[in-house]
Each structure stands twice: as C-alpha cells, then as structure tokens.
Design a protein that fits this description.
By secondary structure, this protein is an alpha+beta fold. It contains 2 helices and 7 strands; from the N terminus they run αβββββββα.
Length: 132
C-alpha cells in the first residue's frame, strides 16, 4: 500500500517537472512584434538608459530608461521619422528592428531583432548566390 502511494507521488512529481520544463521552452527574445505592438523586455539586472528603438533604420521611439526586469510596449504607429512621418503598419514591411541604449557604466548596448529569411528577394538572392 505504501509502495503504491510512493510510486504515484513520484509519477505525479515527474509529470509536473516535465510539464513545467516544456512550458519554459526557449526564452522569448528581447524584442518581439505581435500584430501592431512592439515589446522590448529588459531581462537583465542593469538599467538601460537613453533607449532608442528603430524600425527599418528610419522610424524611432525613445524613452529615458527601461529598468531591470522592465518592459517597453509601443504601437508601431507611434514610430516617427525625422520629418514627422509616422510608420504605416498597413503599407510598410518591417525589415529591421534594433535597440540602442547605454548601460549604467556608460557602455553602449545594441540589440537587433533577428528575422527569418524569406520572400521573393531572398529567393532570388539565393538563386544568384547572394547571402541575405
């Protein structure tokens, strides 16, 4: 009787451990885009100061800082170019997203969102031997 209870407890504990490890999966990247919302997560133990987030190297938003464990969320329509043009989510394709900031010790920080290769341009580039 005691052996059955022990075996069931071990099986239940193993199932919980497997379920929790599969939920963890791969960590989310620091920069994510979901629909029209761009999210930046600072999962470090350092504050990011003088933060600029750029879309397609032309449109940007700024914030004075993102604290450790903090998050910045912005709609893509909030990104503005130098002459006041707003990023048009419906008409423009996002090809590059990067974050620049300063760490507390003054060192620069740059994070680029990786994009998967795809589309006609990458297909033609591969056919011609060009790397993306």
């Amino acid at each position: 009787m005691i052996d059955r209870v022990f075996v069931r407890a071990v099986i239940a504990a193993t199932a919980v451990a497997i379920a929790s490890s599969s939920c963890a999966g791969t960590p989310r990247p620091a920069i994510t885009i979901e629909g029209r919302l761009l999210t930046v997560d600072n999962r470090t133990s350092q504050e990011w100061k003088d933060v600029e987030v750029w879309v397609n190297r032309y449109y940007r938003i700024t914030t004075p800082s993102i604290p450790p464990g903090g998050r910045l969320q912005a709609p893509l329509d909030a990104f503005v170019a130098g002459f006041g043009q707003r990023f048009n989510f419906r008409q423009a394709q996002i090809q590059d997203v990067r974050l620049t900031a300063r760490l507390p010790d003054g060192k620069p920080l740059e994070i680029r969102k990786p994009f998967e290769a795809g589309g006609l341009a990458d297909t033609l580039g591969a056919a011609l031997g060009k790397k993306p």
